[in-house]
Amino acid sequence: MTASTDRHRASQDDKPDRFWRRIEGVIDPFHDTEQEVLPKDAWRFILYFARQAKGPFVLLLITGGLVGAVDAGLYWSIGWLVDLLDRAEPATLFAEHWPELVGLLVLVFVIRASVMVGAAVVEQQIIVPGFFAMVRWQAFRRVIEQPYEFYQNDFAGRIATKIMQGGEAVGDFIVSVLQSIWSFLTFVILATSLLIALDPLMGLVVALWFAGYLMIIRYLLPRLRRAGRATADQRSIFNGRLVDAFTNIVAVKLFDSGRREHAFVRDGLEGFFNAVVRLTRAITTVRAAVNFLNGAMMASVGTIAVWNWTQGTISTGAIAAALGLVFRLNNMSGWMMFNINGLIRSYATIQDATGTISVLPAIRDADGAATMARAKGDIRFENVTFHYGKGAGVIEGFDLHVRPGERMALVGPSGAGKTTIVNLMLRLFDVEGGRILLDGQDIRTLTQGSLRAQFGVVSQEPMLMHRSIRDNIAYGRPGASEAEIVEAARRAAAHDFIVEVADQKGRKGYDAHVGERGVKLSGGQRQRIAIARMMLKDAPILILDEATSALDSEVEAAIQDNLERMMEGKTVIAVAHRLSTIAALDRLVVLDEGRIVEDGSHAELVAKRGLYAQLWKRQSGGFLPGRIAAE
Ligand SMILES: Nc1ncnc2c1ncn2[C@@H]1O[C@H](COP(=O)(O)OP(=O)(O)OP(=O)(O)O)[C@@H](O)[C@H]1O
């Protein structure tokens, strides 16, 4: 086959795709607004999104109404057909009545099918893909702005579920109201009108039936809503426990010999079960009540119809139409209950989701926040207080000045506040008192993006994404060339092992994907990738929080020179428990209970015989390693 026939076939294949794409593109999945926080109230949340896709929802309203009308027309025409067959002569039926019969065929074949297909296209091709995605996209864009603390207080899986389910629930809710409920209402109104035309008494019965139906719904709606909300809450709790168990699977394997995790998950499942039972009890009660009501309505209309027939006031066809309409109402009422139940569930899911999605981030860029160009690296803590929102403790009246180009280490016992100081500097938390200045500017007056761009961070937990190794390194500098990525990997002593790696799907080297949080690599390998990423970022301030803790001394020695070179001209703040890794730095700041207790060089602090000297003695066993001793 020639290239041109290939192209021709490809363009023909594209045609239906383009057709669908045009329809599916009516709602832009990535549309967004300027609104910083999404509405917290579930109703407002629904309306906020409905307003963003008015056109498709108006279409849905029209098709929903038409579906109800066509349905009523169809049942009416059954009566008409019965009457016609009753009157007409078989031999002349087609000759005399072909226009009406063709009209009926058109109604069944063309009109009904077109309306149904139209409704399906609007719902399935326009709203489901585009609208669901749009809600999820807007939710994601706001949730990702939440500060670190937000994620510390919730399960990642739970947050993700709320975004996924929230998008679906808003779409389902609106579709259900505009299509199912609206088509049902149209049908009820038309059926009642048609029955009134036959006999007002039949119309009255249906009107009374509808009033009773509404009363049942009204009575049970709040109960269903409460039970629905409880189910959603319990589902989240259960889901959270499952995610927690699977996320920390190693801890479970190592420590859970007594199968406590079973009990914990079982407890969650039991809570969910109890909530579901309350919900299903309410549903069964509704169904029982509706079935009795429907039975009464069908029996009454049937009796009235047959009575009228005996009196000769209505035709056989009218009985067929009347019974057809009320049987259809009976079927629809069950289906409506299902819809209303879905509606309540969706509403509860939305309420649950807005609790997470519609929250104003506790840390935001100030109005007119400045964008910092490359910093010199002068960091100043002025009388900083921070207690993680509690009354006291952690960091109290903390002052520290780190000069540009200074290489400093934070040292201190576990829990002294080293990581907290680093997190405050990165504005992962906001200070509760005092201020932190970067090159003389309060970090709260800078955009978070430009502030964090000044820092290259390697922490104990290297935070790798579930992507290729290349993407993980390039995360430090988007758009970096392949050569730059490989160079960074070499400097981090990572290149040699990277070229050997293969993932489960057979991708090799830099293309290999690291598992969720990099589980398929060793701790030291992950840390080297993180170091490569930091090297590539080339930020003016480096934060090495136990950056080499997972490396053996050989690998550490291999990258030491490169680390040294990278540190040149940069401000460095290191945190390490292994004092030998930081003893050579310019300045060691010793913390205890959130306060600076000593400040000086290694030699000065050893001579001082204070806390540092004690820590040092404990770690070095009383001896000074060669490299430090030589200084
Ligand atoms: N998210 C948090 N919420 C509440 N308290 C916290 C939080 N994170 C840390 N803390 C508390 O703050 C104190 C300082 O913790 P931090 O992690 O800063 O110490 P650290 O010196 O880095 O300790 P380590 O050397 O063990 O890593 C500790 O008492 C800790 O319990």
TrEMBL record:
SMART domains: AAA. The chain crosses the membrane at residues 57-81, 101-122, 173-196, 202-221, 313-330. It is a multi-pass membrane protein. Keywords: ATP-binding, Membrane, Nucleotide-binding, Transmembrane, Transmembrane helix. Residues 379-618 form the ABC transporter domain. It is found in: Cell membrane. Residues 58-345 form the ABC transmembrane type-1 domain. GO terms for cellular component: plasma membrane. Pfam families: ABC_membrane, ABC_tran. One of its GO terms (molecular function) is ATP binding. It comes from the Bacteria. Belongs to the ABC transporter superfamily. Part of an ABC transporter complex. Transmembrane domains (TMD) form a pore in the inner membrane and the ATP-binding domain (NBD) is responsible for energy generation. This is ATP-binding cassette domain-containing protein. It comes from Nitratireductor arenosus.
